Amino acid sequence: MKKLLLSLFSILYTAIFFAQVPCENGFAGDYPCNDYDLMSHISLATLGASAGNDSWGWTDPADGKEYAIMGVDNGTCFIDISDPVNPVYLGKLPTHTNPSAWRDIKVYQNYAFVVSEASGHGMQVFDLTKLRNVTNAPATFSADAHYGGFGNCHNIVINPDQGFAYAVGTSLNNGGPHMVDIQNPLNPVFAGAYDASFYTHDAQVVTYNGPDTDYTGDQILIGSNEDEVVVVNVTNKSNPVLISTVSYSNIGYTHQGWFTEDQAYFLLGDELDEINFGFNSKTVVFDFTDLDNPSVAFDFFGQTTAIDHNGYVKNDDFFVAEYTAGMRVIDVSDIENSNIFETSYFDTYPNSDAVSFSGAWSVYPYFDSENIVISDIDSGFFLVRESGTLATEDHEFSASVKLYPNPTHSILNVEIEQGELTQVEFFDVMGKKVLQASLDELSSGQINISNLSSGVYLARINNKISKKVIIE
């Protein structure tokens, strides 16, 4: 029995505690990369799904813990990433009706809002604070509220500054924005709709603070509408007003875009232009300094032929999921001089960079920790981080740590030859934390582990290294 436990421990020790793989010589394990390390990976099989799609995130204001939210065909998965190399799959909110390849999630305050292309799905509302006390992961969650003012829906947009959700691509109003008051998240109420005889596939809504002072403080929606980009003032939900439209050359399918931080430029991805016209992955850069007269500034072409999908701006970087080419990072700091360029990438689809709808669906780059979520259609959840910003195993520190007696019955002594002992955490073979001992800054400590059952555990010291402990 002990040999079986040790064998299982060996497998899980590698899978759980050494998930981080640095990007070296152009690869992080099997994955092509440039300047991004793999923190961790959770497969679709572990998530109990057949396909992945959208992703978002939530940071708990109570303690700063970070949680990734990933859509899959049969529901929405929640993952504790507060320890990025040891993510914990907490559970799933099942789809409201049928499975679907399309699911989208956004967050307002401490609630997730979920829509899907599944017939009759509507909008699920989930209280994210329930993730704080999951005792038997992975759990099956239930929605805390449901909005049935529409059925199927392609996407949901939320401006976190305002308590309104914008459902786009529904079967209502020709697919135009369907606006819902979510200021009381558990009681969503219809607020208005915009029907201009066009279908909005995706959108961004901002409280405008850009260079066009005519609209300062207004709620501005930028819609990606299949064959054009639209600018709509949605401040008055009962009377939204079209400001302008703008088109571009070589239209395939106007898919999704995002403002730069100063709201002067809009970066658009067209989902079918690479297929239809045969060029490399293209980003259309619009000049939005005048919302009444937007124009194309220039086109940026990437380094592969892959199709671009969802992209988001954080500071001076544009993080874009390019399906088979994975996540690409584009520096937009000199965009006003028509000078943007790719700096790095992490490719979750190592098979090829073919022009196909496989690989990375979306990215979420907004955690304060700077860990980035990549949701992959075929391979599940990835967490990556810029190389060199989180060290791997500290071998010098590891050599200075002693645990004894080991095996032990009830008391474990921990000594550090150099440095100070501040914390020891214990994990079982399934990766569940079962004990945490916080100590004063000492060179040694004695820990009572008599409440733990016999078996093999991992002791993690000062959040730096992990060592095997056997309790008899």
Automatic annotation (TrEMBL):
The keyword Transit peptide does not apply. Residues 1-19 form the signal peptide. Keywords: Signal. InterPro entries: Choice_anch_B, LVIVD, Secre_tail. Residues 403-471 form the Secretion system C-terminal sorting domain. NCBIfam families: choice_anch_B (TIGR04312), Por_Secre_tail (TIGR04183). This is Secretion system C-terminal sorting domain-containing protein. It comes from Mesonia mobilis.
